[in-house]
Amino acid sequence: MILVLCKCVLGGGAAFSSPAKFGGLGGSGLKQWMIFGAGQAGRALYKLLHSGKSPVIAFADSNPSLWGKTWDGVPILPLEEAVRRRPSGIFLGIINRESCREVGGQLRRAGYDGPLYQVSQLQNRFHIRLATLRLMAEELESRAVPGALAELGVYQGEFAGEINRLLPDRKLYLFDTFEGFHQRDVEKERAENHSQAQQGDFSDTSVETVLGRMPHPEQVVLRKGRFPETARGLEERFALVSLDADLYLPMYEGLSYFYPRLNPGGYLLLHDYNSAQYQGAGQAARRYCEENGIYLTPLCDIHGAAVLVKDGKR
């Protein structure tokens, strides 16, 4: 299917092309894409876009220390030089909407008049992690895999609300400090240079906010505090667990707690496995998998999710 485009303007005057239908980004004829931003979101976009028929010919980035380098053989260039390569379209590998508007304006002033796409447009239409969750829920129900549900790292409850909606007949345990990152986890994170996390990051939430997002709150059990202390005394087996704790220590502790308690055929959905911002999450997952002789499947979403499936032998 050919990509159908319409124009929209996001305040600040930068015009963005919004795909009206996504049936494939190649369309007819050779398309040559460019991605602005060589960080986490840009690299995830590269994995979605790059193909022999529709290659990504360059990254553009505003960080001079990256200019002249490559990622997967693709050059990272200053904005003006990248524009001179005349790409068929430019994808903005930036999650922040205000930054997208600013970069869109810079590209227009540099003489680029082709289509611009925001990563959020692809994420909204192709929310891979959410789509995977829906398929998992269907599989659990069709195969009658028993067990409760859980999420470690709930934040404001958006993803947990979808879990609750998809599997309304199952108990859902939600583990979070509801006060942001815990100091003990941050100390290890910073000491081992996993990320620049700060105590209290993601603190703009509350138990009331999360419960307000639950379509079936009667099935929800909130465990407030630092994990794994909040799991003490819990006698439960699980069918599906979302691990979205971001940092090395809670990710490792989450895997150590939940994987042995996962029923055969159950799923662990890991957030930030391939994250450039929170590299400790992936390092913790790789360590746990190596120690236990298990393997996971990475997902090509913006934040680098991955899936573990519990087989019947463990």
Ordered list of secondary-structure elements with their pairings:
Blueprint: E1 4-10, E2 14-21, E3 33-36, H1 40-49, E4 56-60, E5 70-71, E6 74-77, H2 79-83, E7 89-92, H3 97-109, E8 116-118, H4 119-125, H5 128-142, E9 148-152, H6 158-166, E10 172-176, H7 183-191, H8 207-212, E11 220-224, E12 238-243, H9 248-258, E13 262-270, H10 279-292, E14 297-298, E15 306-309
Parallel strand pairs: 3-4, 3-7, 4-6, 7-8, 9-10, 9-12, 10-11, 12-13
Antiparallel strand pairs: 1-2, 5-6, 13-15, 14-15
Helix pairs in contact: 5-6, 9-10
Keywords:
alpha/beta; Rossmann fold; 2 domains; seven-stranded mixed sheet; six-stranded mixed sheet; 23% strand; elongated; disordered N terminus
Task: Describe the protein's architecture and organization.
With 314 residues, the protein is α/β, with parallel strands linked by helices. Helices cover 32% and strands 23% of the residues. It has 10 helices and 15 strands. The protein has a 7-stranded mixed β-sheet with strand order 11-10-9-12-13-15-14, with helices on both faces. A 6-stranded mixed β-sheet has the order 5-6-4-3-7-8, with helices on both faces. The protein has a two-stranded antiparallel ribbon with strand order 1-2. Strand 5 and strand 6 form a beta hairpin.
